[in-house]
Design goal:
The complex is a heterodimer of chains A (391) and B (310). Chain A is an alpha+beta fold. Chain A contains 15 helices and nine strands. Classes of the chains: A alpha+beta (391), B mainly alpha (310).
């Protein structure tokens, strides 16, 4: 036996300190992956995109189809058993719904007699009457009993169980539209508005900023004065004014409005980047070999400023989503029956006390979407900022 | 030295002038004219209305009248409600918005800044992490979402508070919270990061080495410097919260100017829209101007900025 053995070649290679050379983007992606919050944001963004893009194809409902019979059914229902297989649920609109064992809504029962004196409503089911005694609600609002259900001399005082609404997974609204389907279409609208508006901003902002930064001198001075003035105007007010001026509320006017107002930040950023880059040697070299000014900007300067531009673009998207929801919420954005989260929240506000889910669901959707994009944007900012690069 | 102030004031006036001109011509460009109704008015009535509101004057004369009116804080009369002056409406409804905005700003100062300071001093402990987690959520969730969730939980499910009108002190909690949540989160984050920046400076160590007590160093040296960016943020923030409460006022059905603005947008009441817009813009610009002046006073590098470059 020898004291020394030859080392296996593959093992030898293993020991050598070889690291794959990392490009800027690879390195950024590596650091983005390490950031937990931004990965949560990324997952959220992907989920919302799937929700908006694929969702409407899967759901059996559309955003406009109204089933007035089945309106205002909440996502979870406290049901009362009346026969072996069927249950009933009284919604806040005093419509009685026939519910199956597992939570499917079979149909609405017709109201036969309204006894206002004793506060009892009678509904017809299979030739007999279902009596709903709701005087407890009126006279003893804090009591244990909400209302009682009597069918064939059998009185049920307490809900038999709570079931998940299987017909409308997230409930139905005041005209019987499926909330889930509307949320999906709302995601589609929000994302469309946000992405196109962000691209418009990108285009205007980058063009304006790079011309201003590259030209310098008097051109720069005038262009930046204009930016200063726009910057000193409360933008939300101008967005509202422009929407009024355009006098039409649809997705395109919102995109036009957002695109024409919010490019200022991008222009400033790009100008700053261009100014810091334009005197470097590689630009001089390009000039020496006769590259045109437009090409220098588009091929040499902008690609080098892409990191900050991308971050600003990601941050633009939640702003656009928020603004669209806001405009729709105050009634000058997307109008019904089109489903935007803001429109849905706006419609729900008057029914807040009785149907809170109609308001909470779109609000949560807006909140979570904006949160996801912001987490992702924060992560990107950290990943792409060369000053924060630490191994 | 005074040059800086004069330049800032002149540029603020110029900006207001531009905004006034823009709003005027936007109003003229509105399709359908101010009296377009679903049921068209009789031509005689229309002619009389146009006569009354001087809409038959040449456009330059209307423009000059409008600008002169603006200087006198006279925005004319509503196109929708007869005999209602825009200025009177603003004076009547602005106090509600002002009160809410002032409370929200106070709330931000009293709660937000201390949270930021504590977070910075206890960096990376659970206190810091919890505070910054909430603050991160706060800067991302829109105010009207906070408002609607608050109403649905505390006024809807729990029935703890009455969500409408301002007749009891508890009914202020919701609007002020919803209005200030974003700024509160932003200010605590800003205070924290600026505080951390200052604590790392060499002169902090020097001050400690010279034998000053920890508390003294903190108050005399760190805090004063750390709060400069925060103070500059507070000015525009104050303007933003008193002008940006449209939705909050709508959700809580309060009779402030924001809700009024939204209503007049819905009614296409052009003089009202323009008047309130100008009023908002003026508040905003004056606040920014005041902060800039205050800033240059606190930090002389700003006003002497140009000379450093020479």
């Amino acid at each position: 036996m020898r004291d020394f053995n030859f080392v296996d070649k593959s093992k030898k290679l293993d020991k050598e300190q070889i690291r794959e050379s990392l490009t800027y983007w690879k390195d950024a992606w590596r650091r983005l992956k390490a950031n937990k919050l931004s990965m949560i944001g990324l997952v959220g963004v992907i989920f919302i995109m799937l929700f908006g893009i694929v969702g409407p194809f899967i759901t059996p409902y559309t955003y406009y189809e109204q089933q007035d019979e089945l309106r205002l059914s909440p996502p979870t229902m406290k049901v009362y058993q009346i026969t072996d297989e069927y249950y009933v649920f009284l919604n806040n609109d005093y419509k009685l719904l026939l519910i199956s064992e597992d939570g499917h809504i079979i149909r609405r029962l017709d109201l036969q007699i309204q006894d206002f004196v004793n506060k009892i409503y009678y509904y017809e089911y299979e030739g007999d009457l279902v009596a709903i005694d709701y005087h407890y609600r009126v006279y003893e609002p804090d009591g244990d009993i909400d209302y009682t259900v009597t069918y064939l001399d059998n009185t049920v005082e307490q809900p038999t169980k709570t079931v998940w609404n299987k017909t409308f997974l997230l409930g139905s609204d005041h005209v019987g539209r499926d909330v889930l389907a509307r949320l999906m279409y709302g995601a589609r609208i929000s994302l469309t508005v946000a992405f196109i508006a962000a691209l418009v901003n990108l285009f205007i902002g980058v063009t304006y900023g790079s011309v201003s930064g590259f030209r310098g001198g008097a051109v720069d001075e005038v262009m930046m004065r204009i930016v200063d003035i726009i910057n000193s105007i409360p933008l939300m007010i101008y967005v509202i004014l422009l929407m009024v001026l355009l006098n039409k509320s649809n997705i395109w006017t919102i995109i036009l409005t957002l695109g024409s107002v919010y490019w200022v930040g991008m222009a400033r950023l790009v100008r700053g980047q261009i100014i810091s880059l334009k005197n470097q040697e590689f630009v001089l070299a390009a000039r020496v070999i006769g590259v045109s000014q437009g090409k220098i900007i588009s091929r040499h300067l902008i690609p080098n400023a892409l990191g900050p531009i991308l971050v600003s673009l990601t941050m633009m998207i939640p702003t656009a989503i928020f603004t669209e929801a806001f405009l729709s919420f105050i009634g000058i954005g997307i109008s019904a029956p089109q489903a935007s989260w803001g429109t849905m929240a706006n419609e729900a506000i008057s029914m807040l006390q009785t149907q809170p889910y109609l308001l909470v669901l779109p609000s949560l959707a807006i909140g979570l979407t904006v949160l996801s994009f912001n987490f992702l944007g924060d992560g990107l900012r950290a990943a792409l900022d060369p000053r924060l690069r630490q191994g | 030295m005074n040059n800086y102030y004069i330049k800032r004031i002149l540029s603020a006036i110029f900006t207001l002038f531009i905004i006034g001109t823009l709003t005027f011509f936007m109003m003229k460009l509105m399709p359908g004219g101010p009296f377009a109704r679903e049921r068209p008015l009789a031509p005689e009535i229309l002619a009389q209305l146009e006569e009354k509101y001087h809409l038959n004057d040449p456009i330059w004369k209307q423009y000059i009248d409008y600008m002169i009116g603006m200087i006198k804080f006279d925005f004319g009369y509503s196109y929708r409600e007869l005999g209602v002056s825009v200025t009177e409406q603003i004076i009547l409804k602005f106090p509600v918005s002002l009160r809410l905005g002032a409370l929200a700003t106070l709330f931000v100062i009293v709660i937000g800044i201390p949270i930021g300071i504590v977070s910075a001093l206890k960096q990376n402990t659970w206190v810091d992490q919890l505070a910054m987690f909430i603050a991160t959520i706060g800067v991302t969730i829109p105010g009207f979402v906070v408002a609607t969730l608050y109403v649905s939980i505390f006024a809807g499910s729990l029935q703890w508070v009455d969500a409408t009108d301002l007749d009891h002190w508890s009914s202020y909690i919701g609007p002020v919270l919803a209005l200030s949540f974003y700024s509160l989160s932003f200010v605590s984050r800003l205070t924290r990061s600026s505080m951390l920046e200052i604590l790392r400076q060499d002169y902090m160590r020097t001050a400690r080495a010279n034998g000053l007590s920890k508390v003294r160093v903190l108050y005399k040296h760190a805090l004063k410097n750390a709060l400069i960016p925060v103070v500059t943020y507070l000015g525009p923030m104050f303007a933003a919260v008193i002008t940006g409460s449209f939705v909050i006022e709508k959700v809580f059905s309060l009779g402030g100017i924001g809700r009024y603005y939204v209503d007049s947008v819905g009614n296409r009441d052009y003089t009202m829209i323009m008047g309130v817009t100008m009023f908002y813009a003026a508040i905003y610009i004056v606040m920014v101007l005041l902060v800039d002046i205050a800033y240059s006073w606190i930090d002389p590098r700003i006003r002497l900025g140009k000379k450093q470059g020479d």
